[in-house]
Every structure is written in C-alpha cells, then in structure tokens.
C-alpha cells in the first residue's frame, strides 16, 4: 500500500521533478544521513579510544589524554585531529607513535619528560596538516628535525635548547607564532629570516648578547627581555612595517648602545626598556602609547619652574622662559620633553598614555610643568 502511495505521488509531480530528483528525498538525506553518521562516529569513538584517554562522542575527532600519568605514547586512532597529551611523564616519541595519526591538526605534548634524542627523526614527516605543536616544558636540547611545513604555531619554550640553525626552520613559511623563550640559546644567526609569515617572536630568557640578524619583516610583537644584550644595530627597526610591541627589559642596554632615533619610528604602541642601564630617556615617536623605563639610571634636570623665577625687568622673565623652554625640548639633559615631543603646541603632542619612570634617580620635581601640554593624554606617570 505504501509503495502505491509513493508511486502515485511521484506520478502527479511535474516530469522535471519526478525524473531528476526524488521528491521524498528529504526524508532520508542529508539530515537523516548526518544522524546515522554521527551515531556511527560516536560508536567508533568509544570502540577505538584507549582506556587511559577520553574521546567525547560529541567531539569524535579529539582525544584527551592529559594529566593521566602516562609514560609512553598511547595508540592514536586515524580519525583524531586534536590530541592532548600534556601534563604527563612521556619520555619518547617513536616513529610508530604517530604513523596512524596523519590527520592531526593540533598536538599538545607539553609538560612531559621528552628529550631530543628520544624523538624519532621521522616522527613528524607524515603530519602534513599539523598546525599547532606544543613542546614547551620538556627536556629538549634542540629543535626536532623534519617539522611539518604546515605549522602555524610552534611553542618550544622552557627547554634546554642552546642553538638554532637555518635547517631547523627551513621551509616553515606558514609559521606565525614562535615561542622560544626560557631556553639557553646563545646564537641564532640568521635562522629566523626564512619565517616569512611570523608575527609573534618570543626569545626572551635566553643568553643572547646581540639582537638576532635578519628578523622577519612582518613581526607584530618582538620579545627580547631577560637576555644580555648591550647594544642595538643601526637601523634596528627600519626593516619592520607592522611592529607594534617591543619588550627589551632586563638586558644590559646603555645610552651609547642605542643609536639616535632608534625608537623614533611610527607604528610602535608599546616599548619596554625597563631594568637596563639607561641614563637618559631615548627619543621616541609621538605616536607611542606605552613607555616603560623603570629601574634604570635616569636622572632629573632639577630645573626650576617658571613660577619660581622672579625678575624686576619683564624682558628678562621672557628671555629666561624661552631659554628654559629650549632646555626642556632640546638639551642633552637626562630628562627632557624633547624625548617625547619634537614640537609642542595645541595640535602637536605625545600620544603616551603610560610612562613608567619609577626606580630611577628622578623625582616629581624633575618633571617640567610643561609636561601637562606635551603629555596631555598620559593617564599614568609613575616616578
């Protein structure tokens, strides 16, 4: 009876519909197919998931094995794209461990006990879709070889890496985030030059004595703090067109080691030079928004304000005002508004919002009264 009804319905429809497309197809596709497919995937997730891990039926392409006390790699089903292995005690990644996991997109294996010698040289070769690789907080002495060129986010900080070579990063044109901080790196050379898409580079907490050569031109954030850098090269920032954040705190920078107008470039939003050996405020762009100079050796000028100067002859007052104003703007004194404002009037002023000067040899009295005009947008000035 049901077959007769279906036949009659199809016969009553126009030929263009009855012959080209089943009018009752909505009963079983694609929604019905999705339902059964989801059920099959959920059953498969439960069937091939290792006992020591979790494979949620609602997210069948993910496998959670984090914080399980594992000492070896578990079996990984081929359907897995997101693998979480962090916070274990895994000591090695043999070639066979990932041979079936060729669809991986994320691999989180940070906070384990991996060593460079215990990671097979071919283990990453078949992971052509891998975008995120987290290896931080292990015992690696070098960057693993044959990393996938598909990587976009590589975090290998808090290891024991001493050197980076061009071969370590060859062909990684898609890498945008690279965390290499808190290692023991003394030399990088020009290894980073090939990372054409890199926007965030963190190499702080190493043993660098100079800024690496050939930094990628599209960097947006550059973190170099807690090294032993004493000077900056000429034209240090000339090759960047998108750089907004520079942090170089806790180095050995001196006034002589910073070429004139190094930081007087447009585009910078934040500059951190705290905990160095600077005696003067470097010249910065009027568009800079946050400047951190605390814990240096910057001294005040101890110049008197205009209100404290009294002369009987009015012309001397005017002349002294002009002279003092000139000192504030262009002298070689340690604290000068010329570091922030090349010109100073109603339309020309600094965009600084934060200025940290605490921990220097300077007091509130050393800040010129004219700073209210130059630094009119500053909401925080700490001395």
Automatic annotation (TrEMBL):
Matching Pfam families: LRR_8 (PF13855)
Principal location listed in the UniProt entry: secreted
Q: Which residues form the signal peptide?
A: 1-18
Q: Has keyword Translocase? A: no
- Cellular compartment(s): Secreted, Extracellular space, Extracellular matrix
Q: Which UniProt keywords apply?
A: Extracellular matrix, Glycoprotein, Leucine-rich repeat, Proteoglycan, Repeat, Secreted, Signal
Keyword Lyase appears in the UniProt entry:
no
Q: Name one GO cellular component term.
A: extracellular space
Top-level taxon in the UniProt lineage: Eukaryota
Q: LRRNT domain location, by residue? A: 48-82
Q: What does this protein do?
A: Affects the rate of fibrils formation. May have a primary role in collagen fibrillogenesis.
* Recorded family membership: Belongs to the small leucine-rich proteoglycan (SLRP) family. SLRP class II subfamily.
Query: PANTHER family from the xrefs?
Result: AGAP008170-PA, FIBROMODULIN
Query: What is said about its interaction partners and assembly?
Result: Binds to type I and type II collagen.
Identify this protein by name.
Answer: Fibromodulin
Its taxonomic path starts at:
Eukaryota, Metazoa, Chordata, Craniata, Vertebrata
UniProt gene name:
fmoda
